[in-house]
Amino acid sequence: MRLLFALPGFHKYERGAEIALLSVAAELARTGDDVTVIGSGQARPDDPYKFIHASSIRRENFEKFPFIPLFRSETVYEEATFAANLALRYQPSDFDAVLTCSFPFTNMVLRRPVLGGKKPLNLFITQNGEWPAVSNDAEYRFFSCDGLVCTNPDYYETNKDRWNCALIPNGISIDRFKLGAGDRAALGFPADRQVILMVSALIPTKRVLDGIRAVAPMGDAHLVVAGDGPMREEVKALAAELLPGRFTQLTVTPDQMPTLYQSADVFLHMSLLESFGNVFPEAMACGLPIVGHDTQRLRWIVGDEEFLVDTQNTPSVTKALTDALAAKQAAPVKVSERATNFAWQNIARQYREFLTELMSDQS
Fold first, then answer.
1. Which of 22, 204, 223, 334 has the most CB atoms less than 10 A away?
2. Domain range spanning residue 167?
3. Are residues 130 and 31 both part of a single domain?
4. Do 150 and 243 fall within a single domain?
5. Could you tell me which residue ranges the Glycosyl transferase family domain spans (predicted)?
6. What are the pLDDT digits (tens) for 195-210?
7. pTM
8. Which of 132, 139, 133, 127 is nearest to 163 (CA)?
């Protein structure tokens, strides 16, 4: 199959969506598909797919821009600059199927009319949420796709009667994310304290401020937040007040992510609802107990043995963290068996099966 993956951040950022889609693209390319990736970064010599550059302006440059209908966030501003360049480089006749998780502009460019020839199948992936598929308001009325990849069972149940859907989660590289000694010294973590790790963008929905409040009563615990975003100053200020000498905020390269997990004692994620959350199987594969918000969606990923609570109740989060740390000290560290289900090889196979099914229905 001739496949195109398009997203503004490809080869420029290492965020969850970029990591997930590029991992699928790479696995499909390695197993025989003709895969092209268009993003705003630069080509890398060792990738198994063809890369085409289409520039974009970083979303951080738009953080103080007015948020208005259609341009509802700095992310949409960034996407608009990418889509304009994508339109110049995208030739629909070159592909059997195109895939993205970006709406509105990227999705619309990939669905543009074709004069003669066969239009490629358009797959939309609910990596950043399902609202384009379910909402009929404003610009969402113009959403369309030939296939919808639902990254959790809630999305699948909501959309299966309206769109051609497949339930396919995100995955992890089980060759990279595994048990290891970590390297606290290199990362600047204290050697004599228990380390609680959050891997989160510094945006309101990730609730990092609430994570700081939950760790504050734990006098011997050190909180590490790996991520950045527009709330960085608020996070620093609250940590200075509640966690003096017990807080580290940093960003790491993708190569450092396994070491980051291996250097912690417990993983904390405060989002009330994630589309999937690559961080959960990554943490499990590195042997970390999970503290997160108790939903059926998260239990579908991590199972029933993790420390899931109502994270809107701060004392409950503090207790869950204390229990998770105690459990880790009491038993040998082991990899959750569920983590291996999310190997990228398995996920890519499910994408190929869905694409094959859609193409068969189209013929």
1. 223
2. 2-171+343-362
3. yes
4. no
5. 184-339
6. 999 999 999 999 999 9
7. 0.81
8. 133
